[in-house]
Amino acid sequence: MKSYKKMILLTFLFCTNLHAKVRILTFHYNQADFIEMQYKTLSKFLKDDFELIVFNDARTEKNKKWIERVCDQYQIKCVRYEPQWHLTNPLNAYLKMRLEEPSTIGCGDWDAIHHD
To answer: 115, 104 in Cβ contact below 8 A?
Structure first.
């Protein structure tokens, strides 16, 4: 009898359709009007549902507010990324070093810079 209930449960689970959104991440520090263009372009050409997430790393208060306003207008998720994090995060320094010294690409210890 238990196997019969499991079979019915599995049948219902596998008969449902799963719908996931395409997640698109972008950084913006100025020109908030580009967010509007991105959103309208994605809306026009993507057939699937999508979620646009804007990381707002504007250096000035004016640009920060402008980006937030455009995101609010189009109901886009806006995440604040403080500009100084670009300089203080050890991962950024590590990646910069790797880009400046191409011979080190493919080598290295990622655990040395990982912080929990």
So the answer is: no
Distance CA 69, CA 39 (A): 14
What are the domain boundaries of the chain? 19-83, 84-116
Q: 115 to each of 24, 48, 60, 82, 90, how far by Cα in Å?
A: 26, 36, 29, 19, 9
Amino acid making up residue 39: Y
The pTM (predicted TM-score) of the whole model is 0.63
Q: Where are the alpha helices (DSSP H) in 1-60?
A: 2-15, 33-45
Lateral strand order in the sheet of 77-80: 22-28, 50-56, 77-80
Each residue's pLDDT expressed in tens, for the chain with a length of 116 residues: 567 777 777 676 666 666 778 999 999 989 999 999 999 999 999 988 999 999 999 999 999 999 999 999 999 999 998 888 777 878 777 877 878 876 665 555 555 555 54
Residue that has been written with the tokens 């008969």 in this structure: 15
